Amino acid sequence: MKRKRYSRKFQRKAAERMWTCESIARLAEELGVTPRCLYKWRKKLDLAESGEELARPCTHEASFRKQAQQ
What we know:
Distance between the termini: 23 Å
Radius of gyration: 15 Å
Mean pLDDT: 83
Low-confidence stretches: none
Number of strands: 0
Largest sheet: none
Structural class: mainly alpha
Oligomer: single chain
């Protein structure tokens, strides 16, 4: 099953809504994501604002390593 990708704009708005919502679980349900996903987005945005943006892992590199191990 293919995972759905959300834009950074969507992630930012969702993370901002976490500060004012009553229930993270309800917000996650409303947005069609898991609560864990919301917390990950908020952490990523907090790190980005502090100048420590998380680097995305290179999928090609990981794929190559996996093939090499096999």
